[in-house]
């Protein structure tokens, strides 16, 4: 987080971070549609961007798995802007999607972490996430950096299009600047998260739930657990629980619910009540000082209060730490999980 934000939020932060996009920004502004493509964690970052760009920049956004997009004969127009996200910049499916979009005349933009990677070289323009070297195979800080960059793009686009209230824009920029400090506060809760991991690491399944901007965070939390500790985990939009996953709930199932005090709070609390009524074990990610959920959930992890649109940047941190501690307790290699490669080049 430090690396991503260092010195970049002073003055007009977006001119500095998004410098590589300035030439294509008029095209982004004129786009009839933005298509955002990635794999795995990068796809989850794309989903958050969809929510944000549609809410604030009022532009239609589609999110696609690169592995589907490249094969499914999608409709691509020359006035589409296609944003490709990849930590490594070498993921084969993402590069194939890039080539397809380019062939159809769309403007192609890359967001990646590795300077000089194929994605960086072959896109029309792009942004480096500068998240430092990702040592572990499972993407973690790259996710935070991708979401940061996408948030900046969404806000800049909204500002230029005049679709965001100037006061809300200012408030969101401030919120973004406060993320590193709030992130540090969450990291200080590491020991507490470790103790929660000790309670649940023998579970064979886990469910992750979130709503709105925190639905993709639930997906990402589940993916991290799967990737590094080999526990079967599913992420769901909390409102979907009653359409299937609720059948899984019993006293053996840990359910991680991302439940800060936002507009969805009441609905999420009622989801938690439904889980508790079926004897599920709830680990809730809550806003600091939320005494109500402390009573209701089995365990809570507190995060500082934030604007809902930047909440993914904070709420993903305890989920990454939870997966990390569970993996260590199970004796897994957190940096080199079995069957996974840092760059999926085939
Ligand atoms: C995509 C990805 C990662 C995942 C793992 C396998 O990589 O699915 O999100 O954690 O490392 O590859 P990338 O295209 O973002 O480099």
TrEMBL record:
It catalyses: D-fructose 6-phosphate + L-glutamine = D-glucosamine 6-phosphate + L-glutamate. It is found in: Cytoplasm. Residues 24-163, 196-337 form the SIS domain. The active site is at residue 342. Its EC number is 2.6.1.16. Keywords: Aminotransferase, Cytoplasm, Glutamine amidotransferase, Repeat, Transferase. GO terms for biological process: amino sugar biosynthetic process; carbohydrate metabolic process; fructose 6-phosphate metabolic process; protein N-linked glycosylation; UDP-N-acetylglucosamine metabolic process. GO terms for cellular component: cytosol. The keyword Transferase applies. One of its GO terms (molecular function) is glutamine-fructose-6-phosphate transaminase (isomerizing) activity. This is Glutamine--fructose-6-phosphate aminotransferase [isomerizing].
């Amino acid at each position: 987080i430090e690396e991503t934000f260092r010195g970049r939020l002073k003055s007009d932060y977006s001119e500095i971070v998004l410098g590589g996009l300035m030439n294509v920004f008029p095209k982004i502004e004129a786009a009839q549609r933005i298509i955002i493509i990635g794999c795995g964690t990068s796809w989850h970052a794309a989903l958050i961007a969809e929510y944000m760009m549609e809410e604030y920049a009022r532009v239609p956004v589609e999110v696609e798995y690169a592995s589907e997009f490249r094969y499914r004969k999608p409709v691509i127009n020359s006035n589409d802007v296609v944003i490709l996200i990849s930590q490594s910049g070498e993921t084969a499916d993402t590069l194939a999607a890039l080539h397809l979009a380019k062939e159809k005349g769309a403007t192609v933009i890359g967001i990646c972490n590795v300077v000089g990677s194929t994605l960086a070289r072959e896109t029309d323009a792009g942004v480096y996430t500068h998240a430092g070297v990702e040592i572990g195979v499972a993407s973690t800080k790259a996710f935070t950096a991708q979401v940061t960059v996408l948030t900046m793009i969404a806000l800049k686009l909204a500002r230029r299009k005049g679709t965001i209230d100037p006061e809300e824009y200012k408030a969101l920029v401030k919120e973004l600047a406060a993320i590193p400090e709030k992130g540090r506060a969450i990291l200080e809760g590491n020991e507490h998260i470790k103790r929660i991991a000790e309670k649940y690491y023998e579970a064979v399944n886990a469910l992750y739930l979130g709503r709105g901007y925190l639905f993709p965070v639930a997906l990402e939390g589940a993916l991290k657990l799967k990737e590094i500790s080999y526990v079967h985990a599913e992420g769901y939009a909390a409102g979907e629980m009653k359409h299937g996953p609720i059948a899984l709930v019993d006293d053996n199932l840990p359910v991680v619910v991302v439940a800060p005090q936002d507009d969805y709070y009441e609905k999420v609390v009622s989801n938690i009540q439904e889980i508790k009524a079926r004897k599920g074990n709830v680990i809730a990610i809550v806003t600091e000082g939320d005494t109500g959920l402390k009573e209701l959930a089995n365990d809570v992890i507190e995060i500082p209060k934030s604007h809902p649109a930047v909440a993914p940047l904070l709420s993903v941190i305890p989920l990454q730490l939870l997966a990390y501690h569970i993996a260590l307790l199970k004796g897994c290699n957190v940096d080199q999980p079995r069957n996974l490669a840092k760059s999926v080049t085939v």
